[in-house]
Design brief:
48% of the residues lie in helices and 21% in strands. By secondary structure, it is of the alpha+beta class. The chain folds into two domains: 2-67, no CATH class; 76-118. It has a five-stranded antiparallel β-sheet, with no helix packed on it.
């Protein structure tokens, strides 16, 4: 099972890198042009290898960005000044987006991280 998880993780990095490369046309064309100038075996393997490397780089950037976040999506939070329990639904422009039900409808608002505190149901972050 461990080998399957390693292969699956590598596949995720490979696919992610491929999505990024195909989304940036000049990068995609540069890789294809550079690869075609190599020998036939290298030309076949090089684009895949470069997609994998780019997937690792993008993945590392995402992990670094996530490490700086105080709250994770789906965490329960409450305003420090009092208010309803809310669920974090995302981050946008440095703000924490939250939703809650006020008894009549679903409300949503964005808060600065320093305006919020963990709620009773906050997920415990794994220590790695």
């Amino acid at each position: 099972m461990k080998s399957l998880s390693v292969v699956g993780t590598l596949a995720m990095f490979l696919v992610g890198g491929g999505i990024v490369v195909h989304g940036i046309a000049p990068l995609h064309h540069a890789i294809e042009q550079f690869s075609s100038a190599q020998g036939s075996v290298v030309a076949a393997i090089l684009p895949t290898l470069l997609n994998l490397v780019l997937g690792f780089i993008v993945g590392a950037i995402v992990v670094a960005a996530e490490a700086g976040m105080v709250f994770l999506v789906s965490d329960e939070v409450k305003p420090k000044k009092g208010g309803p329990r809310m669920i974090v639904t995302g981050y946008s422009s440095g703000m924490v987006e939250c939703r809650w039900h006020d008894g009549y409808s679903i409300k949503r608002e964005a808060f600065r991280e320093d305006e919020l505190q963990p709620g009773d149901g906050q997920h415990k972050r794994d220590k790695a």
